[in-house]
Amino acid sequence: MKKHEILEIMKEPVLKNRAKFLALALILAGESALSLLLPQILSVYIDGIAGGKGAAAKIGSFLSTGGMENGMLSALALCAAGYCAAVLLKGAVSALNIRIGERLSWSMCDHLRVKLFGRIFSFDLQYHKMSAQGSFLERLEGDIGLLSGFFSSMMIDIAGSLLTVAGVLIAFWLSFPAFGLFFTVLSAGILLLFLKTQEPVARLWKRERDTENELLGDFSQSLAAYEDIAGLRKQDFVLDEMEKKFGTLEKQYEKAAFLGNLPSTAFYSLLNAAEAFVFFLGIYLIGTGRMTLGGLYLILSYAELLNTPFLYLKQEFANMPKVIAALRRIREVYEGKKTDGEEKAREPGLSVPEDNSIRFEGVSFGYRADAPVLREASFRIPGGSRVQIEGRTGSGKSTILQLVAGFCRPQAGTVRIGGRAISEYEENSFRQFLFYIQQSPPVLEDTVRNQLTGFDERFSDREIREALKKTGLAAWVDSLPQGLEERLRPAEVTADTAQLLAWTAAVLRKPGILLADEFDALIGEKTLSVIDGLMEREFAGTTILLVTHRKRSGIKADIRLTVDDGRKRDEEKNAVRQGCLVFQSGHSD
């Protein structure tokens, strides 16, 4: 995708929230105006106390109906009341800014989360296999979390600060043109230097976040592979590798943080020096009678007021490279290609296969180019067969199921279902022809009905209850307060129940091909017995491919495919050997 497409994606929520953006702009302008008004009021007050000079004298004269002294007291009282009212109003406006900014943040970022999540789901399985675990989650929450901070506070701070700077400079030009010229040149130079330093620092932060994501993925994978690591006594090796990567991350973070803060700290120091210069110059002008005490206070207040937004800008521009890096990492997902180099949806084709036979013709596949899992694999499985796939971890058992399901595309050769390549079938119809059961089936935080039907309304209550009776879950569903409409809580659903829910959905659909990947690994013997019975009774004519955990399942297989040491051994007469499956050491299924 093109770089501008993220902006196109954000266009919809921007237009949807245009009223909030307009309100935010008006409120920011009002807050900046109040910030400029407060020093003006105090300047008049100070001149009034110091002998009724400048604007205080004019206001006192206007209010001097009871004498000049009474007029000056009225002017001072008016200044005090006006100042208190302006302070309270400014606080209310600031709170409203925060409120609107937070709401904008949620709306904009949730829209981007959904779009990014959908984009991630559009990639083929091998794209996910080649990506570090945790990387996508970090993009969804880590990077978009930074954008959330941008919309909720950073954008407000930057916009408000720039408005305040502009207002202060205008006020300087109107009241003290020489100071206006001085601070205009200084402010323009500082802003230019801020902007010029963003690009190199953004590259440093992107490198740091990429390393952090890679480390997060390695950490997750190491935890998931604990059994293998412990069995091979690789704990020390893994710990040494993690220590090296943590060291690299620390150095990258230190470099990005130091260089990111260095220019802004220098700019802030320069501004402080300019404020000191203005102070001494103001003292000189008071001594020559060309400036009142209130005028000096006003200049110093505006210089300080100019200091405050630059302090905010310093902080936010220091964070800006992180936001830029987050946008670039998000864009990488949008620009990512499917592994076959195509982003277009599969063109309309045949609805469903004529039969449920499976044939691999010279299939080669690997998640990485340098680590093939299958090489020129060729074999045929007749329709209605029950196939048990065996082999040690990493031999390619699950990969065979994923290729049959069409989750992965062969890099060479063809996978044929019903005599035709998978690409010839219409995708949605083909998906309904197969059913895939994982080791840990996902449980939706939704109703029991939607969990079983997958939001397909063609299944009646009678059909659902019949399927539940066959899997032994009818009594469990009846015990729920709302029955089929009960909303499931994934954390409260046991591994056995989750597995039986998946098999109930399979019974409902009566698929032509049923794929089960280590379905028996985490369940008890009672649940395993129920599932074995289902395969014997409910799936007559269905082609079943099983990857079982240590051969726990008692199902009688027509074909046993053993993937071991690079060879596929056919242990039954009706398994036609036409090639071999090659195991690549170091690959994990």
Summarize the structure.
The protein is an alpha/beta fold. The protein is 63% helix and 10% strand.
Q: What is the β-strand count? A: 11
Main beta sheet: strand number and arrangement?
A: 6 strands, mixed
Radius of gyration over all CA atoms, rounded: 35 Å
H-E string:
HHHHHHHHHHHEEEHEEHEHHHHEHEEEE
Low-confidence stretches: 339-347, 565-589
Structural class, from secondary structure content? alpha/beta
What is the share of helical residues?
Answer: 55-70%
The rounded distance between the terminal residues' Cα atoms is 31 Å
Count of DSSP helices? 18
Strand order of the largest sheet: 6-7-8-3-9-10
Tell me, briefly, the overall form: elongated
Share of β-strand residues: 5-15%
Question: Which descriptors would you attach to this protein?
Answer:
alpha/beta; six-stranded mixed beta sheet; 589 residues; 18 helices; five-stranded antiparallel beta sheet; single chain
Structure description:
With 589 residues, the chain is α/β, with parallel strands linked by helices. The chain has helices at residues 5-16, 18-49, 54-62, 68-121, 125-129, 135-175, 177-196, 198-224, 226-231, 235-287, 293-335, 397-405, 427-433, 448-453, 461-471, 474-479, 495-509, 525-537; strands at 358-365, 374-381, 386-391, 412-417, 420-421, 434-437, 513-517, 543-547, 559-564, 567-570, 576-577. Strands 6-7-8-3-9-10 form a 6-stranded mixed β-sheet, sandwiched between helices. Strands 5-4-1-2-11 form a 5-stranded antiparallel β-sheet, with no helix packed on it. Strand 7 (513-517), helix 18 and strand 8 form a beta-alpha-beta unit. The model is unreliable at 339-347 and 565-589 (pLDDT under 50). It is found in: Cell membrane. Residues 358-584 form the ABC transporter domain. The chain crosses the membrane at residues 21-42, 72-98, 144-170, 176-195, 265-287. Pfam families: ABC_membrane (PF00664), ABC_tran (PF00005).
